[in-house]
Amino acid sequence: MMEYPAPLARLIHELCKLPGIGEKTAARLAFHLLKGKKEDVLELADSIGKLRQGMRLCPSCFGLSEVNSSGGQEGACRVCQDPRRERGKICVVEEPADMMAVEKSQEYRGLYHVLHGAISPLDGVGPDALRIKELVRRVEGNQIQEVIVATNPTVEGETTALYISKVIKPLGVQVTRIARGLPMGGDLEYADPVTLGKAIEGRREI
Description:
The chain has 206 residues and is α/β, with parallel strands linked by helices. Helices cover 42% and strands 14% of the residues. It is built from eight helices and seven strands, in the order H-H-H-E-E-H-E-H-E-H-E-H-E-H-E. It has helices at 6-15, 23-35, 38-54, 78-81, 96-105, 132-141, 155-168, 193-201, and strands spanning 55-57, 64-66, 86-93, 110-114, 146-149, 174-177, 204-205. Strand 3, helix 5 and strand 4 (110-114) form a beta-alpha-beta unit. 27% of the residues are buried.
C-alpha cells in the first residue's frame, strides 16, 4: 500500500484532530491545499499560527477578546466595552461560541458570562472547574437585576442552571432560564438565530 509523502501525511494527521474530520476528509482537504495558490495556503497557515497569539479571554466575562484591544478596560471584549449594553443583565452561557450564537439572535443587549463548560459529575467536572465563582463576584460587585441562564438544553446544562440559580438567588437577583425553544440535546452554537431569539425573548424564572 502506497504511503503519503511525509509532509502530506503530517498535515492529514493534524487535520484528523479537528472535530468531525476523518482521514478521508482530511486527505481531501490536504490535497485541496496542495493544489491551491501558494499565497492562499501561506495566508491560512499564518492565520492559524497567530490565532492563539491574537486572542485572550476577557477578564470580565471570559468571552473571547483580541490582544491589544483598544479603549475601555484593558483586554476587555467588545461587548463589555460597549457603553450601550444593558449593565443590569448577565446572560450565562457555556462556551464562547454560545455567546456568539446569542448575539446573532439580535434579541439580547445585556452582558455575558462564559462558564467554559457545564457541571458533569460523570466527567469529573464540578462547579469549581467552571467560572461560577467569578459570576457570583460580578453579581455581588455590580448592580445586577437579572441573570439569564442560557446553558445548553442537556442534562449537564440543566444541572448547571439549577446550581447557578441556587447560588445567585440568595443575592436578591432574579434568575431566569431561556425558554424551551431549543431541542433537548442540542447546542446553542448550531441553533438558528430566529429560534434562539425566541428562546431569549420567552425566558422564565427558575
